[in-house]
Write a structure and sequence with these properties.
This protein has one domain. Helices cover about 85% and strands about 0% of the residues. The protein is elongated and about 65 Å long. With about 130 residues, the protein is mainly α.
Length: about 130
């Protein structure tokens, strides 16, 4: 069971890294090429701004998730060391609180990214000529 949980956490981290890369790329490209793609008179500019906010939130929560994950694993390492001093066979497990500390930022990051894509696509469709 522990191996399955470890693989699921690795898969979540890989997906989070991909979402981070895509969010960063979407934000950079949409900022860089906004004038080239929609001209001087864009419609529904609020959708573009909202997509930028969503992408930025996604990026921030990715970094926050990495920081929290590091904090969780440092805490687990300290628990293992303390348990090893008291009982050499003792092991520390990731509890529900720690799983939420790692999982919530991933959910917010992914949700914000999807919302950003939806708003960016809406902006693009509103500005097709």
């Amino acid at each position: 069971m522990d191996e399955l949980i470890r693989r699921a956490e690795q898969s979540n981290q890989l997906a989070s890294d991909r979402v981070f890369t895509l969010a960063t790329g979407c934000l950079a490209l949409s900022i860089t090429f906004r004038h080239d793609l929609v001209g001087d008179q864009p419609h529904d500019l609020w959708r573009l701004g909202t997509s930028w906010v969503c992408f930025t939130i996604s990026i921030i929560f990715h970094v926050l998730g990495l920081a929290l994950e590091s904090q969780v694993f440092v805490g687990l390492y300290q628990q293992v060391r303390a348990a090893a001093l008291l009982d050499p066979s003792g092991q520390a497990e990731i509890g529900t609180k720690h799983r939420l500390m790692i999982g919530i930022p991933i959910v917010v990051e992914t949700s914000s990214f999807i919302a950003g894509i939806i708003f960016l696509a809406g902006f693009a469709l509103a500005n097709l000529h």
